[in-house]
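User: Before I run my own analysis I want an independent prediction to cross-check against. Here's the chain; please return only the structure tokens and, at the end, one sentence I can use as a sanity check.
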Amino acid sequence: MKVSDKLRQAEDSKQPYFSFEYFPPKTEQGLANLYDRIERMARLGPVFVAVTWGAGGATAQRTLELCSACQGVFGVETVMHLTCTNMDIAQVDAALEGAKAAGIQNILALRGDPPRDAEYWTACEGGFSHAVDLVRYIREKYGSYFCVGVAGYPEGHIESTDADQDFEYFVAKVEAGADFVVSQLAYDANVFIQWEKKVRARGITVPVVAGVLPVQSYQSFRRLVFLTKVA
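Assistant: Structure tokens:
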């Protein structure tokens, strides 16, 4: 089922709803531990779960494996992240065909962060420069098969120096064919609420999900705020 439909159903119910996001573990033991946790967390009834994608497909196989398990074994609607970082069109197609074969119908289309060894983000040869390009490509090649989500930035993208232009970039992603939006981390509820009002005033009606990351330690929280520039 498309996540956009599930989100609308959840909103119509007027009941609180939530989702979970998982990062693919690097080891087999880590994967086994995560599967144990996913099984328990699935019983809580999330609207969907999402699985991140490593730069340049670094976690491609593990991401697909984890998505397949969440969707097919644990029975939870699953969103696979897909980024442009170090991904040419052939790699993008391989990822999308793999998702399709695994029964994954929901994709979160992202530009992605720079690789760990790079200071700045650069497009790879034969790849995409922006998330909007990835959204357009998915729509052009796969039509309406995939439910496509995009990121929204209530406080602006970390690389943006113009808030108004940044918002226009976001609007372009939605108009290119996005079915739902997941926001950047939002710790200030008022900032998120005002941003969503701006989104709705622009005529955007797709579901919008607020991104929240629980604070596990003060050190990790400070690092996260530094990396994302959220207030």
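Sanity check: Residues 28-42 form the longest helix (15 residues).
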